Amino acid sequence: MAAFAVLGLFAVSPQAAAGSRGPGQGLARLLAGIPMARTLVAVVSVVALVLLLIAEAGAGPAAATAGGGAAALKTGKVGSVTVLTTASGLTVYTFAADTTPGKSSCYGSCAAYWPPVTGSGSAAAGIPGTFATITRTDGTKQVTWNGHPLYTYVGDHGPGTATGNNLNINGGLWKEITVSG
Fold first, then answer.
1. What does the alpha-carbon distance between residue 33 and residue 18 come to, in Å, rounded to a whole number?
2. Which of 3, 98, 142, 170 maximizes the CB count within 10 A of its CB?
3. Residue 86: CB partners within 8 Å, gap ≥ 6?
């Protein structure tokens, strides 16, 4: 983005318009007739840079809860099986490689495909097990169930799907959490 701004400013600079030959000369002549062209190029470049930064900030993996609030967990059906889900109905998984208590083993590209369930971890009444949180390396709170960090899967496109169940990728086996009673 900054390179485009520099090239744009070079194209409208007085030296480029004064008759030098080279890249940008035609553009320089064209823009020389536009009042405040240099200012316009600078403003457009700054706006584009701000929009790029906003897009980059929001492009991280989708979290199961927004804003780090309570991750309201509930149950849902995948076929005839009752599973633990997020408030939006996405199936929740555990990762076999999470063997150290209080620590997730899923970061980087793993977390891009298996977004951690984040927040304070509240569960609907009647769901068995103990819910708590751990602190990830980036400082976010990840919800745990019976000591296991919880994740969703990007391949699940809505309630009632569990396409991540029994996948053995990213260093271990992924299992949906079945709930009875």
1. 13
2. 142
3. 64, 65, 71, 72, 73, 74, 92, 117, 152
